[in-house]
Amino acid sequence: MDEVPGTSDRILEVAGQLAQRRGFNGFSYADIAAALKITKASLHYHFATKADLGRALIARYTERFQAALDALEGTPANILRRYVKLYEDVLVRDRMCMCGMFAAEYSTLPGPMRNELRRFFNKNEEWLARHLEQGRTNGGFEYEGSSVEMARMLTAGLEGAMLLARSFEDPKRFTATAERLLAELNVPSSRKRS
Amino acid sequence: MDEVPGTSDRILEVAGQLAQRRGFNGFSYADIAAALKITKASLHYHFATKADLGRALIARYTERFQAALDALEGTPANILRRYVKLYEDVLVRDRMCMCGMFAAEYSTLPGPMRNELRRFFNKNEEWLARHLEQGRTNGGFEYEGSSVEMARMLTAGLEGAMLLARSFEDPKRFTATAERLLAELNVPSSRKRS
DNA sequence: GTCTATAACGAGATAGAC
DNA sequence: GTCTATCTCGTTATAGAC
After folding, report:
1. Residues B57, B12: contact at Cβ < 8 Å?
2. Is A41 contained in some domain?
3. Which partner for B95 in A55, A178, B20, B37 could form a disulfide, CB atoms 3.0-4.6 Å apart?
4. Distance A19 CA to C6 C1' (A)
C-alpha cells in the first residue's frame, strides 16, 4: 500500500486542486499539462474527454471524503466538530468543497457528472443524519424534527459559509458561522471546554 | 417612469438571466447576441469588456434586490418569511441567486466584480441583521449572540440550500431547509397559522 | 504511454463602414 | 448605435510517429 502514484492519479490530484479553486469550467487541460509537465495529448490518453475527467474527480473525492468521515472518532459532539473541521481544512488550503463548487456549475455539467454529484451529497447526508440521530439519542444534541432535514440544513449552511468566506477571503467567517450552526444543535463551541 | 427599456437594459436583462442560470463563465457575448438578435460587436459598444458587463450586472442586481427588501412589509416574522420567498421565487424560475453563483466563481472573477460582490453581501447582511434585531426586540424571535452572526448564518444557509436544491432539481428541498432555518429563530412555518 | 502537429471551434475584442 | 469582417487566442479533441 501507498505505492508511487501513477500518471492518472497525479492528473486527478492536480485537476482536483484546480477544480476546487476555480471550478470545473475554470481550468483546462493546458493547466494540468503545465503543472505536470506533460502534453495535453497525454492527458487525453488517461481521460478521453473532460467529462470523463470530471466524473472521475467526483468519484475520487467522494471516496476520500467518505474515508475521512469513517475515520472520525470521539463523542457525538466531537465527531461533529471534527466533521466541521474537515471543511475548514479545505478552506484554509484556499479551496472550496469540490462538490459545492460543482453544484454551482450544475446546469453546465455533463449528465454523468450530475449523477455523481448527487451521489456525493446523498452519502454525505446519510452519514450526517446518522450521526445527528446518535447525538440526539445519547450525545446531548437538541433539535426537533427529522434528522435528514437537519443534516440538509447543516450541509447547506456549511457549503454556503464556505462560499461566503471565500468571497471575503476570510476563513474565520466560515468558522464563526459553523459554530453558530453547531450551537443550534446544542453542541458547544470547541473553544469552551465541555 | 417605466419607460421602454433601452438596449443596455435589455442586454443586462438577458445577461442576468444567463448568469443566474449558468454562471459568469457559463455564458458568452454570442449567447446574448443570439437572444437579442443583434451582433456581438454591438454588445461591445454598450459594455466594452465582459468585466464591465459583469460589474454592471452585480450593481443592477444589488439595486433591485435592495428595492425588493425595502418593499417588504408586515410583522417581523412575516417580513422574514417574505425575505425567504424572494429567494424561492428566483429558484422556481430556474435561477440561482446571482451573487451566490458569482461567489462560487470568485477566484476567476476580475477585481472590480469581486468588490461589487462583497458590496451586495454587505448590504444584504446589514438589512437582515437590522430586521433580526427588530424581531428579537418585538417580534418573538429567539436567538443568542450577535444579529450579524445570525444574519450570516441565514445567508449561508439560504445560498447553500439554493445550490443543493438546484443539484437535485427540486425547489422543495430549498423550502424545507429555509423553514428549518427560520424555525431556529422561533419563526413558525408559514403553513401554520400563528 | 508520451510525443508533435493540427484540426475545429468558440471566446473576447477591435477596425472601420454605414 | 449597429453592422461586417477580422484578429488573436484558448479550448477540447484527434491522428499518427516514437
Report:
1. yes
2. no
3. B20
4. 28
**Alpha-carbon gap: A53 to the closest alpha carbon of chain B (Å):** 19
Residues 7-36 of B with CB under 7 A from strand C: 27-31
Evaluate if residue B193 carries a pLDDT over 50: no
Nearest to B126 by CA among B69, B51, B189, B50: B69
By C1' distance from the Cα of A36, the closest nucleotide is C2
Please give the pLDDT value at position A2: 72
The tens-digit pLDDT sequence of chain A (194 residues) is 677 889 999 999 999 999 999 999 999 999 999 999 999 999 999 999 999 999 999 999 999 999 999 999 999 999 999 999 999 999 999 999 999 999 999 999 999 999 999 999 999 999 999 999 999 999 999 999 999 999 999 999 999 999 999 999 999 999 999 999 999 999 998 765 44
D chain positions with any atom within 7 Å of a protein CB: 1-5, 10-16
What amino acid is encoded at B123 in this protein? Answer: K
Q: Is residue A7 part of a domain?
A: no
Which three three-digit cell numbers place residue B162? 439554493
Is B111 part of any domain? yes
Q: Which nucleotide is nearest to A43 (CA to C1')?
A: C2
Tell me the angle at which helices B50-70 and B7-22 cross, rounded to the nearest 10 degrees: 90
Residue A22's CB: how many other CB atoms inside 10 A?
20
Q: Which one of B100, B157, B166 has the shortest CB-CB distance to A153?
A: B157
Specify if A128 maps to a domain: yes
- Nucleotide closest to B36 measured between CA and C1': D2
Q: What is the pLDDT of residue A179?
A: 98
Q: Is the CB of B104 under 7 A from strand C?
A: no
Rounded CA-CA distance B106/A167 in Å is 6
B113 vs B102: CA distance, rounded Å:
9
What's the domain range around B161? 54-184
Structurally, how many domains does chain B consist of?
A: 1
Per-residue pLDDT reduced to its tens digit, B110-129: 999 999 999 999 999 999 99
